[in-house]
Write a structure and sequence with these properties.
single chain; mainly alpha; transmembrane helix; 483 residues; 22 helices; globular
């Protein structure tokens, strides 16, 4: 392996850090200019569009990363597999995009969200050219990072120059689609310079079974947070969707940043299994999990403590403060989502257990549907109860996955040992520390800075004193770079 996992993680982290900064720059501005109701309309439309995008993508992204990673040392096989998967994506897109247009014309014509849905049909059509999975399978994370930073920078500048008031709402929607087109087209052009179309051994039926399971898997995942937004839009209001969406966005920004540690290892884990190196796979898996949890637990507890302050900063005022408890619950959801990502992506998926994974995710997705129906019938559906019940469903899911992995797959992997859970115990001390700070310092920015600095210093010292393996690994990497 010529590419370092550490370097890949650095590039992925840099990318996600940039994606973290973007909402902090653009989010408050767009909320002030366009308003929470119209932003809720965009979020609601995206939720509808997502269902069709799943079918248009046909699960090729996830499947392509796994399968290309296993054969990436054989250029001819890579070319042949890429050609087959790309053509399957085009065929799926030619079916799904017209279906999406028919659907919105039947059910949403005349609705306020209809024009946005028409524009988003372009996004669905673009799915055929979304070949970033090839770049990830080849571990080309430096290109992905640089390209995305440039494209998103253009988006930021264009938004600040063109979006001035509520009348520019549709300009903002179109700008999002144009940015997507630019991002996809650059990646496609890059891949075509490295991989050639090879029609000599086209195979469709061989891949369809796994792809269908992945599509079902993706649809099952929509029974979680995407379902929440649709239910809130249908049974509460667009504002309720907005109050749910912004905490979700904060959660996803931070979680995606942390998942840089995990997701860049999928190609490497798949490659190890492709070479039948089970021992190396288990060693890397446990190290990945421990590293991830060392960052996940303090981040989640930090979000819980600073929920109100984060939303004030993000919203540029107090208009999002009503979402404070939603964000606090999302902090708990983030922990369950982190465990679920490891169990799903790093274990069951790379082990080609997507069939049983579909059963698990679909089962507890349906449990979540039942939870939501109970909330609707009792009049208790709110952004808070929506994410709380989704968190519960996710907890039941990861419990089932974990039991299956240990009892059925018999992988030497634990998420319950002290070596991993100690990071949660250390992080829980942030709560009393922050409470003491709040009693002494009343200033908004001084409180935030002290909470971050004092808790960060405490966490570092605890890891240093206990000679934590993860901390010293990072320190050694850093010192090696300096020298």
């Amino acid at each position: 392996m010529s590419k370092s996992i550490f370097k890949n993680a650095i590039y992925k982290t840099l990318l996600n850090l940039f994606n973290l900064v973007i909402p902090l720059i653009i989010g408050p501005y767009v909320v002030r200019v366009i308003g929470t109701e119209l932003m809720g309309r965009i979020s609601y439309t995206e939720s509808i569009n997502m269902y069709f995008a799943i079918f248009a993508g046909l699960g090729i992204y996830q499947y392509g990363i796994r399968e290309i990673s296993r054969i990436r040392d054989d250029k001819k096989k890579v070319n042949q597999l890429f050609t087959s998967l790309f053509l399957l994506g085009v065929i799926a897109n030619l079916i799904v995009t017209p279906a999406y247009l028919i659907y919105i014309n039947i059910y949403f014509k005349g609705a306020p969200a209809f024009p946005v849905m028409v524009i988003y049909a372009f996004n669905t059509a673009l799915t055929a050219f979304y070949v970033e999975w090839m770049n990830e399978a080849l571990e080309d994370y430096d290109f992905i990072t640089i390209k995305t930073i440039i494209v998103r920078s253009i988006f930021i500048i264009s938004t600040l120059l063109l979006i001035k008031n509520q009348q520019d709402f549709y300009k903002y929607v179109i700008l999002n689609s144009v940015t997507l087109f630019l991002n996809y087209s650059i990646s496609f052009a890059r891949i075509k310079r490295k991989v050639k179309f090879d029609f000599s051994n086209l195979t469709f039926t061989k891949h369809l079974k796994s792809l269908i399971f992945i599509v079902i898997l993706s649809n099952a995942n929509t029974l979680y947070t995407i379902l929440d937004k649709i239910m809130l839009g249908n049974h509460v209001s667009e504002n309720a969707v907005s109050y749910y969406t912004y905490p979700q966005l904060v959660n996803s920004i931070v979680n995606n940043l942390l998942l840089s540690i995990v997701l860049v290892t999928v190609p490497r884990l798949s490659n190890l299994l492709g070479n039948n190196d089970e021992k190396q796979y288990e060693n890397l898996l446990n190290k990945i999990c421990k590293t991830y949890l060392a960052f996940l637990f303090p981040a989640a507890i930090g979000i819980f403590i600073l929920a109100k302050e984060i939303l004030i900063l993000y919203g540029g005022g107090t208009q999002l403060v009503a979402s404070t408890n939603v964000l606090r619950i999302f902090a708990a959801y983030m922990i369950t989502a982190g465990f679920e990502s490891i169990l799903t992506n790093q274990v069951m998926y790379v082990k080609r257990k997507e069939r049983i994974l579909v059963v698990f995710i679909l089962t507890f997705g349906l449990v979540n549907v039942v939870f939501k129906q109970i909330l609707v019938r009792t009049g208790a559906l709110t952004p808070e109860t929506a994410i709380a019940t989704t968190t519960l469903a996710n907890f039941l899911l990861i419990t089932t996955e974990y039991l299956y992995i240990n009892l059925k797959l018999k992988i030497k992997f634990s998420i319950l040992d002290f070596g991993k859970l100690k990071y949660l115990l250390y992080s829980l001390a942030f709560i009393p520390i922050s409470y003491v700070i709040s009693l002494v310092f009343k200033g908004f920015f001084s409180y935030i800075m002290l909470v971050v600095l004092v808790n960060g210093l405490y966490y570092f010292l605890v890891l240093y004193i206990t000679k934590d393996e993860i901390l010293f690994t990072f320190l050694s990497k850093f010192m090696r770079k300096k020298s």
